[in-house]
Amino acid sequence: MSFSASVLTLYPEMFPGALGLSLAGRALEAGTWSLETIQIRDFATDRHRTVDDTPAGGGAGMVMRADVLAKAIDHASPEGDARPRLLMSPRGKPLTQARVRELAAGPGAVILCGRFEGVDQRVIDARGLEEVSIGDFILSGGEPAALVLLDAVVRLLPGVMGNAMSGEEESFENGLLEHPHYTRPQEFEGRDIPEVLISGNHKKIAAWRRAESERLTAERRPDLLAAAQPLAK
After folding, report:
1. Does the annotation list 136 as a binding residue?
2. CATH 1.10.1270.20 occupies which residues in the chain?
3. What is the role of the protein in this entry (predicted)?
4. Is 192 annotated among the ligand-binding residues?
């Protein structure tokens, strides 16, 4: 069974975007995963296809309506659909590589892309939406965040990456940032490839890479160190 993504958006033309290229694009063409875009405005009931209204209690901006979104979600994810329902939101739980792996191992995802000031809380509660954030910053809408999430998931689907090992030593896979990489030429502007990497001693290479990962993580993301997985013996 392939991974099936349904994206609810006001801008379906933003998809597949970058997901139609490279590894994700080839996997999409091959049927390894599927992408459905759903125009939220199709579920509005007035002639203007209104999907938002002024915030209760006053304030700037507009809020996406619960009734319209509920109809769109129910259309995309009818009763019995096992896929998680995600809402891309800056106040959501930060997306992690562990959560990406969980999603990649599942049947797919229904992804709601918010716009304006946000989404009526009642539809979040009523439809069990899992709020997901890709970082502590604000985007103009959830679509770029959805593209990021799907790119992270699709590359982990079976057969998408040519070498399965290429995903095992990347940043966050073992709780650490990834070690530095080098390739030919041997010397570049007076800088050489570290001798250990051309020694042929795989145990020493693994130890060097682990040490470099720990060093970079301590410098840039010390919060990750406590939860890092130990080096395999």
Report:
1. yes
2. 173-227
3. Specifically methylates guanosine-37 in various tRNAs.
4. no
